[in-house]
From TrEMBL:
SUPFAM superfamilies: Terpenoid synthases (SSF48576)
PANTHER family in alphabetical order: FARNESYL DIPHOSPHATE SYNTHASE (PTHR43281:SF1)
Gene Ontology MF: a single term: metal ion binding
Protein name: Polyprenyl synthetase family protein
Cofactor(s) demanded: Mg(2+)
Keywords linked to the UniProt accession: Isoprene biosynthesis, Magnesium, Metal-binding, Transferase
Membership in a protein family: Belongs to the FPP/GGPP synthase family.
A family per Pfam: polyprenyl_synt
BP terms from Gene Ontology: isoprenoid biosynthetic process
């Protein structure tokens, strides 16, 4: 675990440094509340591992760490808005930003996070483009969810790729870009990550149906209460059947990874493990 923790620590250290520079102090307090309240850091870890799997050195190269932090800030910004839409009181076991500070300050904090993120991506136009495209997909997914609920499994999967898979894809693409990988390799890592993201979303749906609030760190049963799409209900699946759908996406992700990674490495091993982990995680 020391190997993985060193890379996570690199992200955490850089995240702290970026947030320390936020002005004014009131905004700094809000963005720190959102970004430092925990979280699995799956997306930034994905950026770091992909960089290494593509031949880069994320511990020595500031670009990889900056892109990883940028991806996490974009993700955190989207969570602030999700919690407002869902009227959720908790996030990662802590008070949601809109409850702690009010709706207006929470929205400003979300905007501040995006601004800091794109400052980090601005070092490379390819990274900026990858994340911009992901944000377009994310926005389309959020809008679709509000006005046109998916009616079958195919529509649900398209929504999951936009809502969750797109930012996972951008996280991996940014890692490969930081390693100066060729476009084919960038695309292959993106395919791997998008599949992982969809599996992650499906597992989220299952946990919302089966976990308890204390262990999950956020309210459960919320999808049904807010009439949000869940593969369990959209496709009328049991939790076990839904988990199998997640497993299918995980298996496809691993196939894409084998295409992307030209050589075996510890980073590639951990990327395989990540594809497995998202299917069995309990938080």
């Amino acid at each position: 675990m020391e190997y993985l923790e060193r890379r996570r620590a690199r992200v955490e250290d850089r995240l702290e440094t970026v947030l320390d520079g936020v002005e004014p102090p009131a905004l700094a307090e809000q963005v720190r509340h959102v970004s430092l309240s925990g979280g699995k850091r799956v997306r930034p870890t994905l950026t770091m591992l992909t960089c290494e799997a593509a031949g880069g050195d994320p511990l020595a190269d500031d670009t990889a760490a900056d892109f990883a932090v940028g991806v996490e800030l974009v993700h955190n910004a989207s969570l602030v808005i999700d919690d407002i839409i869902d009227e959720a009181d908790l996030r990662r076991g802590e008070t949601a930003a809109h409850v702690a500070y009010g709706h207006g300050p929470a929205i400003i904090a979300s905007d501040g996070l995006l601004g800091e993120a794109f400052h980090l991506f601005s070092a490379d136009e390819r990274a900026t483009q990858a994340v911009s495209e992901a944000m377009v997909e994310l926005g389309m997914g959020e809008a679709t969810e509000l006005v046109a609920m998916p009616e079958d499994e195919a529509e649900y999967m398209a929504l999951a790729r936009r809502k969750t898979g797109a930012l996972f894809r951008a996280a991996a693409e940014c890692g490969a870009i930081a390693a100066d990988a060729d476009p084919y390799t960038v695309e292959a890592f993106g395919e791997y990550a998008e599949r992982v993201g969809v599996a992650f979303q499906i597992r989220d749906d299952v946990l919302d149906e089966t976990a308890d609030t204390q262990s999950l760190g956020k309210p459960t049963g919320h999808d049904a209460q807010m009439e949000r799409p869940s593969i369990v209900r959209v496709a009328d699946l049991s939790p076990g059947e839904a988990n199998q759908r997640a497993r299918d996406e995980s298996d496809a992700a691993i196939e894409a990874l084998e295409t992307a990674a030209a050589r075996d490495s510890r980073a590639v091993d951990y990327l395989r493990d990540l594809a497995e982990f998202v299917v069995v995680r309990e938080r």
